[in-house]
């Protein structure tokens, strides 16, 4: 009985440790091929649909997207692939706040 209790506690600690390593991150992407007024909207909707994304701000003037995301659910690579699949190649301008 005592061993089961210890095993249960250790299991809970390990599970919670994995979740505590996850963090909210922010990346600014340079987004190419934005030429019309609807392009920023398309880029924003595309990025918002990626699991783990919590906020997206797209600037047509700066040709950039600032994305806040949970790094336990997605990566910068996945964000870049999402924009590329919609015809908007992107590259990291700034990683972090």
Shape: elongated
Characterize the main sheet.
4 strands, antiparallel
Kindly identify the CATH topology. Alpha-Beta Plaits
N/C terminus separation:
48 Å
Could you estimate the helical fraction of the residues in percent?
40-55%
Task: Say how many strands there are.
Answer: 4
Count of DSSP helices? 3
Question: Notable features of this structure?
Answer:
3 helices, 97 residues, Alpha-Beta Plaits, four-stranded antiparallel beta sheet
Could you describe the 3D structure shown?
The structure is a single chain. Helices cover 40% and strands 29% of the residues. It has a four-stranded antiparallel β-sheet with strand order 2-3-1-4. It has a single domain (23-95), classed as Alpha-Beta Plaits, CATH 3.30.70. The protein is of the alpha+beta class. The N and C termini lie far apart (48 Å).
What's the quick description here?
The protein contains 3 helices and 4 strands.
What is the secondary structure topology, with strand pairs?
Elements lengths: L1 H19 L3 E8 L7 H10 L4 E7 L4 E7 L5 H10 L4 E6 L2
């Amino acid at each position: 009985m005592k061993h089961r209790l210890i095993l249960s506690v250790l299991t809970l600690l390990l599970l919670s440790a994995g979740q505590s390593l996850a963090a909210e991150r922010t990346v600014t992407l340079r987004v190419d091929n934005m030429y019309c007024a609807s392009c920023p909207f398309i880029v924003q909707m595309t990025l918002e649909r990626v699991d783990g994304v919590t906020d997206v701000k797209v600037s047509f003037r700066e040709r950039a997207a600032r994305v806040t995301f949970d790094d336990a659910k997605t990566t910068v690579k996945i964000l870049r692939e999402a924009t590329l699949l919609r015809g908007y190649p992107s590259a990291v301008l700034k990683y972090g706040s």
